[in-house]
Amino acid sequence: MMLPLADLLLSPDDMAAVDKEAAASSIDSYGLMEKAGQAVAASALRYFPGALRFVVLCGPGNNGGDGYVAARALRLAGAMVLLFHLGDPQRLKGDAARAFADRPIEGEAIASYAPRRGDVVVDAIFGAGLSRRVPDEVVAVIARIDEADIPVIAVDLPSGLDGASGQILGAAFRATRTVTFMTRKPGHLLLPGRDLCGELEVFDIGIPARIVRAHADGLIGENTPAQWQTRIPSAGADTHKYKRGHLVVFSGGPNATGAARMSAMAGLKAGAGLVTIASPLEAMSVNAGLLTAIMLHAVEDEASLRVWLTDQRLSTFILGPGFGAGEKARQFCLALADRHLVLDADGITSFRDDPQQLFDAFAAGPTRLVLTPHEGEFARLFPDIAADTALSKVGKARAAAARAHAAIIYKGADSVIAAPDGRALINANAPPWLATAGSGDVLAGIVGGLMAQGAPAFEAAAAGVWLHGLAGQHAGKGLTAEDLVASVKPL
């Protein structure tokens, strides 16, 4: 499925290559800058009609050129406009120099701007191409504007944000609105960038789609149904419970059974035909008294598990929620190396001393393993990748997926789902109130339920994260894990 341009994610480097190819194709690059600046001005006038002054802050590159065009358009519309620049604008080159030459008013050094009530700031200092810490004079301006609580319209990306990672490079504007062009960047979706962009507008300035798509590798995008829906099995008229797969969730001891039941119910609601909790003998009575639609099977040790595994209909397993970390978890996991496995929580931690043992067990054949680490668990399995400050969250998830031959759900408010082949999706539909006890158990259950039905590991992981966010939206603020399970809906 071909996604609309606005749904693609291009890195700042890829977008720079798009701009370069557009110019090489005899497209009027200044005309593109003119459209970008006009779009910013239109947004400013549409959303801030009561502004007393539009204060345009222009940087030393093409982002600043967009700002000079916006300043001219705002002035021609009759607005009061003030212009401030970073560095010596006489040193501008190319289209930015032309935009500066056409500026409507003289500007001042950016350090001289004193915010006033009624101002609306247009931030055209750096945009998405910044890769170094912002200079001190910009840090000071950001602080003054933030203290004055003045609305900010960011051009492309709030200055101070890394467009590839969404990380703050020393200091960054908190924009009320961000106007970007042709496509979004990863920094628009990854945190904290997403929170600092405010409302995001993607404006088509006329670069041909063929050029944009040529530089979009198709491997990175936002996690939406368009990315995976065709790979998720749908129920037909002849569907019965055995066709929809058998999911098994391992339970912990008698005092740690709730997490497994939460995962099991989520898997059932996500569409698995049958769900069984594999329980140690000492927890059988606890689980039996609290299960209805979920079946129960005694599995005490590795030997009893291997006997049970002679039943090939048991295709998908969840290990980790409430299970306990240690040798038993490792034994069970390795016994499941030829099956589909969602490894969560204690299951992940159990391999902290020898993660390669886990990776080797699932290295051959199609991807069968889904790992669901949060920040700390990720660092236990992939300490060197977690410590690599040159990698964004997307880069870390992709590197981990390739190493582990697994689909990775690098959890958080901006969860990243990655596949061994380099595909990665950034999730943006999760409400903040999902951060509650048991939420991860529900996520593991949804993913397992989708895999049991035959969804490939990466697509099951991505769809599971999205459905988890949707359930959180439906359950609402103050949800508990029980509320979340009740709100899970199949595709």
Write a structural description.
The protein is of the alpha/beta class and 491 residues long. It has helices at residues 12-24, 29-47, 62-76, 94-101, 136-148, 186-189, 193-197, 209-214, 258-269, 284-288, 302-308, 327-335, 346-349, 355-361, 375-381, 383-386, 393-404, 439-452, 457-475, 481-486; strands spanning 53-58, 81-85, 108-109, 119-124, 152-155, 177-181, 199-203, 220-222, 246-250, 274-279, 295-298, 314-319, 340-343, 369-371, 406-410, 416-418, 424-426. α12 (327-335) links the parallel β12 (314-319) and β13 (340-343). The longest helix is centred in the first third of the chain and has 19 residues, at 29-47. It starts with 11 loop residues before the first helix and ends in a 5-residue tail after the last helix. The model has no long low-confidence stretch (mean pLDDT 95).
Features:
491 residues; alpha/beta; UDP-N-acetylmuramoyl-L-alanine:D-glutamate ligase; Ribokinase-like; ADP-dependent NAD(P)H-hydrate dehydratase activity; metal-binding; CARKD; potassium
Rounded mean pLDDT score: 95
Structural class: alpha/beta
Largest sheet: 10 strands, mixed
Supply the number of helical segments: 20
CATH architecture assignment name of the largest domain: 3-Layer(aba) Sandwich
What is the CATH T-level topology of the largest domain?
A: UDP-N-acetylmuramoyl-L-alanine:D-glutamate ligase
Q: Rg, please?
A: 26 Å
Content of β-strand: 15-25%
CATH structural class of the largest domain: Alpha Beta
- Report the principal-axis shape: elongated
Instruction: Tell me the distance between the termini.
Output: 18 Å
Proportion of helical residues? 25-40%
Tell how many strands the DSSP assignment holds. Answer: 17
Strand order of the largest sheet: 8-17-16-15-14-13-12-9-10-11
User: What would you give as the CATH superfamily of the largest domain?
Assistant: Ribokinase
The overall number of domains is 2
**Uncertain ranges:** none
GO molecular function, one term: metal ion binding
Cofactor: Mg(2+); K(+)
Subunit structure: Homotetramer.
Binding site for (6S)-NADPHX: 62-66, 127-133, 156, 259, 322, 374, 441
